[in-house]
Every structure is written in structure tokens, then in C-alpha cells.
């Protein structure tokens, strides 16, 4: 059973609590608790699956786990506030390593003035770090995946495939030149697009997802949740000018299916596109229009990739831990 089939199996038929605006099925859960909605998400990193200490120091690991969580809050349009850390620690872990892990997290938490409010520490065979984040959002500005509408434009921030390139470079374990270092940093120290997502407050409706599993998977999630068809133009996908040199034959593969860029992908009405562009400019964040949304005519929701006069079905082929 893969990760996605498992999640389908555990979808409850109903929630006991009426405050659940969104339970399982988006980047984070959304709970009505007052004037603002509480948004919460959790992410777990396992040594040997998500990182190895051979290629990454624990400071970087700590930063990355929190960054992945913050990216989920960004994808909901939520302001980060608090976090909890749970750690399974091998017996031989020394206190310096432990401190490094926390330092990495604390550095990122400081950027967003987040408070560490608790967690759990237990001993076990391998190092596992699990973070739960909490944030808030105005109820009418939650950026659900199900909010895409026919006629919308599809956009993406940053460039695609960079983190995957960085991972390959890490595995090569040789010194990097300046060009290569950029990609390694994109993998090790991703920048969750929190501030940009918060600045989008002026925009009325956006469907939003963060790119943790590759843009192909994330677009399919938006199409399914919103019950629409999405068309993407390959030529419009933002690719870093130096990626070709590193990716060689893998370029298309990394751009479409490479995970953990932690950029934002979403849809917006053409009437609000200009405002979005202005905000992106203010935040010096590349923002590209890559396609459009239309009504679904087939039974299933599909994402189509248009490339050199050809139209291909873009299936969710991103990273899926159970299938590895
Ligand atoms: P993301 O990639 O955005 O972090 P995931 O693909 O990990 O999201 O999860 C998709 C949805 O499934 C989320 O709503 C998440 O909370 C839920 N989910 C994942 N694993 C579990 C689990 N073990 N129990 C309950 N819900 C889960
Ligand atoms: Mg996500």
C-alpha cells in the first residue's frame, strides 16, 4: 500500500466536532476556534529515508523539518505561531548533535517569531524528528486546494527541480563549484514562502498547494480537490538557467516530479493576477503563469501537459515514501 492509498483509507465519513473546517486532505487541518481559524500540520523526517548524516549535518536537518512544516502553513495562507518537536533518538546520540538539531530549527523559528511550546523525547533505534506547527488565518482567506475554478490561471513561484538537483549533487560527495552550491542550498535550506503567502491577503480567492512531492503531484491534488481539468504548458515552467548543465537527460523528470522545492503552486482568477504579480515583485519572488483551469469533461480530473504541439496526461509521479 502506498502513502496516498493509506490516506484514502483513513478518511473519516464525518467529524464529531463541528469546528473542523478541513480535516484530512489538504496541506494542513483548519479548525474554527474563534474569529480566526487555527491551522495545524505535522511532518516527520526519518534518518535513512529523508536524510543521512553522511550528507547533511543535524543543524540543517532541524532547519529542513521545520521548513517543510512551514511550507504547509504557507500553502494554507496561515501565519506561523507555535511548534512542537518530537524526537526518537538513538542511544549513542551526543548532546552536541542534539543541540545542533535544535539550533537549526530555532534559526528558522526566529525568522517567523515562532515559539517552541513542547514535544516529546524518547530513545529508539533510528533518529526520527517530527514537528507539529500551529498558525492562524482569517476564515475567508484560507487557501484550500479545492478553490480552483474554470477560467483560473495556474501559477508557480520560484524555479522547479532545483532541490532534486541539489540532492543528486549531495550524493556525488565531491566539492561543489559556485553554480552547484546554489542547488545544494536549495535542497538543504529551502525557503518556505510564508511571507509571500501572507501578503496575498489582498487577493480574494486562491487555490494553493506547496511543492513537496513535485509539481505533477501537486497539480493533480488541486484538480481532484476542485473537480476541474488543468492544462500546463511545459515551455512556461520556470527552470533555473544552470539546471540544464546539472540535470542533463533528467531535466524534464526533475522539473515535473522533483520534490521538496517547497515553492507554491496554485490558481487564481485572471482579474486578480495583476495584484498577485505586484505582490511577488515586492517580495522579489519569481512568479510565473504556467497554464489554466477548465471544466472537467472526462469522468476523472486530469492535468494535461502541453509540450511541442503534443498533449500528455501528467500523472502524479512525485515522491511517495512507501513506494520507494
Ligand atoms: P503534505 O505533503 O502536504 O505534507 P501529506 O501528503 O503528507 O501532505 O498528507 C495529506 C493529508 O493526509 C494531510 O491532510 C495529512 O494530515 C493526512 N495524513 C497523512 N498521514 C496521516 C496519518 N497517518 N493519519 C491521519 N492523517 C494523515
Ligand atoms: Mg503540502
How would you summarize the topology of this molecule?
Blueprint: H1 3-9, E1 20-22, E2 29-32, E3 37-46, H2 58-76, E4 79-89, H3 95-111, E5 115-123, E6 128-137, E7 153-157, H4 162-172, H5 178-188, H6 194-199, E8 206-210, H7 215-226, E9 228-233, H8 243-247, H9 251-257, E10 264-268, H10 270-282, E11 287-295, E12 303-307, E13 310-313
Helix pairs in contact: 2-3, 4-5
Bound molecules: adenosine-5'-diphosphate and magnesium ion (MG).
What brief labels describe this structure?
single chain, alpha+beta, six-stranded mixed β-sheet, 10 helices, globular
Q: Strand fraction band?
A: 25-35%
Main sheet: strand order: 8-10-7-11-9-12-13
Helicity range: 25-40%
| Structural class category | alpha+beta
Tally of contiguous helical segments? 10
Number of strands: 13
Bound molecules: adenosine-5'-diphosphate, magnesium ion
Shape: globular
Whole-angstrom Rg: 19 Å
Euclidean distance between termini CA atoms: 11 Å
Average pLDDT over all residues: 94
Listing every helix as H and every strand as E from the N terminus to the C terminus, the arrangement reads: HEEEHEHEEEHHHEHEHHEHEEE
Give the biggest beta sheet: 7 strands, mixed
Uncertain runs with pLDDT below 50, 5 residues or more?
A: 318-324
In short:
The chain is an alpha+beta fold.
Task: Describe the fold and architecture.
With 324 residues, this protein is of the alpha+beta class. Helices cover 33% and strands 27% of the residues. Helix 2 (58-76) runs parallel beside helix 3 (95-111) and helix 4 (162-172) packs across helix 5. It binds adenosine-5'-diphosphate and magnesium ion. Magnesium ion is lined by residues 27, 72, 75, 210, 212. Magnesium ion binds next to helix 2.
Amino acid at each position: 500500500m502506498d502513502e496516498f492509498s493509506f490516506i484514502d483509507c483513513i478518511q473519516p465519513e464525518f467529524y464529531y466536532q463541528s469546528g473542523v473546517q478541513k480535516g484530512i486532505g489538504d496541506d494542513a487541518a483548519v479548525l474554527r476556534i474563534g474569529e480566526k481559524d487555527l491551522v495545524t500540520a505535522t511532518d516527520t523526517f526519518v534518518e535513512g529515508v529523508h536524510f543521512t548524516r553522511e550528507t547533511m549535518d543535524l543543524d540543517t536537518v532541524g532547519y529542513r523539518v521545520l521548513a517543510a512544516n512551514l511550507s504547509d502553513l504557507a500553502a494554507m495562507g496561515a501565519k506561523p505561531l507555535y511548534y512542537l518537536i518530537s524526537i526518537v533518538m538513538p542511544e549513542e546520540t551526543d548532546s552536541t548533535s542534539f543541540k545542533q538539531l535544535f539550533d537549526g530549527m530555532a534559526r528558522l523559528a526566529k525568522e517567523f517569531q515562532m515559539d517552541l511550546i513542547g514535544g516529546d523525547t524518547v530513545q529508539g533505534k533510528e533518529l526520527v524528528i517530527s514537528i507539529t506547527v500551529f498558525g492562524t488565518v482569517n476564515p475567508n482567506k484560507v487557501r484550500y486546494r479545492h478553490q480552483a475554478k474554470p477560467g483560473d490561471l495556474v501559477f508557480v513561484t520560484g524555479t522547479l527541480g532545483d532541490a532534486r538537483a541539489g540532492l543528486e549533487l549531495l550524493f556525488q560527495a565531491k566539492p561543489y563549484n559556485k553554480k552547484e552550491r546554489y542547488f545544494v542550498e536549495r535542497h538543504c535550506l529551502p525557503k518556505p514562502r510564508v511571507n509571500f503567502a501572507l501578503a496575498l491577503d489582498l487577493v480574494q480567492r486562491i487555490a494553493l498547494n506547496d511543492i513537496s512531492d513535485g509539481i505533477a503531484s501537486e497539480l493533480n491534488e488541486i484538480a481532484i480537490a476542485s473537480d476541474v481539468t488543468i492544462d500546463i504548458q511545459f515551455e512556461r515552467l520556470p527552470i533555473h538557467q544552470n539546471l540544464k548543465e546539472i540535470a542533463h537527460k533528467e531535466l524534464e523528470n526533475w522539473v515535473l516530479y522533483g520534490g521538496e522545492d517547497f515553492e507554491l503552486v496554485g490558481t487564481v482568477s485572471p482579474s486578480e493576477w495583476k495584484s498577485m504579480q505586484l505582490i511577488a515583485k515586492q517580495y522579489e519572488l519569481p512568479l510565473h503563469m504556467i497554464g489554466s483551469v477548465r471544466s472537467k469533461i472526462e469522468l476523472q480530473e486530469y492535468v494535461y501537459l502541453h509540450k511541442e504541439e503534443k498533449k500528455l496526461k501528467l500523472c502524479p509521479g512525485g515522491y511517495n515514501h512507501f513506494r520507494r
